[in-house]
Design goal:
Blueprint lengths: L2 H14 L31 E2 L6 E2 L15 H12 L41 E4 L3 H10 L8 E3 L3 E7 L5 E7 L1
Parallel strand pairs: 3-6
Antiparallel strand pairs: 1-2, 4-5, 5-6
Length: 176
């Protein structure tokens, strides 16, 4: 494997927590922010028993990335960075990746006929957690982005919807 490819895989492995791609060693680049300890403890490993064999099942640790097609990837990436604060995957040495906070993540397949995403031609929707819904909505609206009025759902939290410049649905969630 070429050094350049190995380096890229190590950066992605470190950045997205997928250490199974390549083991971390002296070639790995740090992708941390000041709030992160230099050597964070590995996440606790949860295991489930298979009914048929009693063996422990290995589970994924979280989402390591979101990759999707775009008409104008550069412009769309800049939009996400400017309006939602999501750093793009680094393309140069020393750059850092977006570090998301730990928290609940919903993973829910929907029927092909769902109207939940809006446009039936859109196959996915992303939900981002936010700390302050009102502040985020005001920030987006001040930038000229159309955002629906937030709705509250009891013990779940507050939700709102918007679309990126290519029409992809985005849901914002402030957990209760």
């Amino acid at each position: 494997m070429s050094f350049q490819r190995r380096r890229l895989l190590q950066v992605l492995s470190y950045a997205f927590g997928s250490s199974f791609i390549l083991p971390r060693n002296g070639l790995a680049m740090p992708a941390q922010n000041a709030a992160q300890p230099a050597n964070p403890a590995p996440p606790a490993k949860e295991a489930a028993k298979h009914e048929w064999g009693g063996t422990e099942m290995e589970k994924v640790a979280g989402i390591g990335g979101l990759f999707f097609r775009a008409h104008d990837p550069k412009a769309l990436g800049q939009w996400y960075q400017q309006h939602l604060g999501i750093s793009l995957t680094p393309t140069s040495e020393g750059a850092t990746v977006w570090q998301q906070e730990a928290g609940p993540t919903s993973f829910t397949p929907f029927p092909e006929t769902t109207k939940y995403f809006g446009d039936p031609n859109k196959a996915w929707m992303i939900n981002f957690r936010v700390h302050d819904m009102d502040k985020m909505v005001a920030q987006l609206r001040a930038a000229g982005i159309e955002v629906k009025d937030p709705e509250t759902y009891g013990k779940i939290g507050r939700f709102t919807r918007l679309h990126d410049p290519e029409g992809n649905p985005i849901e914002l969630w402030q957990p209760a």
